[in-house]
Design a protein that fits this description.
The chain is an alpha+beta fold. It has helices at about 1-20, 30-55, 60-65, 85-95; strands spanning about 65-75, 80, 100-110, 115-125, 130-140, 145-155.
Length: about 160
């Protein structure tokens, strides 16, 4: 019986030591995750602000630079694929006298290297105001967030 007691005591000590040394340090992950989310939110705000500022200034090339090479832009009149086509579509919008573009983000979120931002937009044209909803999907490419898909869905016009 003495041998069994010693064995149990040794087993308990070994298991206790293994548990004590094997425990992960206190979880800073809960602290790091909000920081990553805050970083993503700040990145998306900067991307939105740059998009709006450059579009309103008439700089289609600077707006197009925010898109990945193989991005897609979807609008009420169809889709365009790749950055060069997006540049042409943005230039067409600017030439059509679109101005005073505004965005209001309603929600942004990411997981790993993919994220999205969704909200509402307004855009002035000479004969009407366009307003609607947008969805921007971004991907971290070579350490930089780029737009890979952008959909703008206008609200129906009131007659």
């Amino acid at each position: 019986m003495h041998r069994t007691s010693n064995f149990l005591v040794m087993l308990i000590l070994v298991l206790s030591a293994a548990l004590a040394f094997g425990q992960a340090p206190a979880k800073p992950a809960t602290r790091e995750e909000p920081t990553r989310t805050e970083d993503f939110d700040a990145t998306m705000k900067k991307l939105r602000d740059t998009w709006v500022q450059e579009f309103n200034a008439g700089h289609a090339d600077k707006v197009a630079a925010l898109y990945a090479e193989e991005a897609v832009l979807m609008r009420r009149n169809g889709s365009v694929h790749n950055r060069d086509s997006i540049l042409a579509e943005l230039q067409r919008s600017i030439t059509a006298e679109a101005h005073n573009y505004t965005l209001e983000s309603l929600h942004a979120e990411h997981s790993g290297d993919l994220g999205y931002d969704t909200g509402i937009y307004n855009e002035d044209f000479p004969h009407h105001l366009a307003e609607g909803n947008y969805l921007i999907v971004v991907k971290r490419i070579k350490g930089e967030w780029k737009i890979v898909a952008h959909a703008a869905v206008p609200n129906p016009r009131l007659k």
